[in-house]
User: Fold this.
Amino acid sequence: MSVTVDASGFAAEVRPWLRRNPITANVIATVLDHALAGASTGTDTQWITVRDGSGSVAGAAIHTRGHPLFLGPIPTSAAVRLAEHLAAEDPTAGHPSGEHRTLSEVVGPDEASTAFAEAWRRLTGADVRLSMSQGVYVLDELVPPVHVLGRARVATMADAVLCTRWFAEFEVEAMGGARPPGLTAATRERITEGRLTLWEDGGRPVSLSGRSAPAAGVARIGPVYTPPADRRRGYGAAVTAAATRAAVDAGATRCMLYTDLGNPTSNGVYQRLGYRRVGSASRFTVYRAGGVTDESAGE
Assistant:
């Protein structure tokens, strides 16, 4: 296992593995492409390469300060070794050496994330709880909804305040977390790149969907958010379909998304749009001893 803050060196090692795992490692590939395109992460991001007994790349993970640790489909034994490595350099886990890298969440395929969570609990004494079981869906053929009032449009900078507020509300309601660091800047960047789609009815925005730039040909749709007062009108399905179409038009060869398996309504909506479940992932939240969560830094 190797850990670096050099995105270029990491890319040289893991790019073939990422191409072989375009769905389950999509988050890692997307963040990597973003960094290589010039987004500055400095030493805030650890790029982690997992190797097998022969020295070949067997997986990858990334951790950016203030964000979840994202695991690719790595062996459970490697997930345990990674927990040991990160605990050894985390002063808040009782080790004085290393840079402070507060770990608040871990997300990844079920087996790998569960193995990491159990090891982290044992090594640090933290209270680690499953906060969400997620479905991994891939689009077969898009089936847009019909008879939904309104139309889709690309968000503009005039929508930046609204989109930022909706993303913050999504994080609190759907993910149970605080406002992520850098949310305003991230929202404005998505708007600049044309990767936010709004659904509006009567000239009024009523729903929002984001999408990632394609990584290894795969675009990830989401988050999707409709304010409570405008739900049950088909807006969320319509904006998801519009964002999916926009991703394909922008060059994606496949589209995917994550769902909360505890929300049967949204899972049903995505299936009716032509998305098929191909796997699952788990999100664990890390609490310090005594049950106090690690809060992400504000903007």
In short: Confidence is low (pLDDT under 50) at residues 93-100, 290-299.
